[in-house]
Amino acid sequence: MSPDAQARTQLLAEIDDLGLDVDVLVLCAGFGMVGPFLAQPFEQVTAMVRTNVEALMALTHAFATPMAARRAGAVLIVSSMAGNQPMPHFGAYAATKAAVTSFAESLHCELRASGPPAIATARRCSTIASSAASSPIPMAMARITNSV
Question: Catalytic residue numbers?
Answer without folding.
Answer: 79, 93, 97
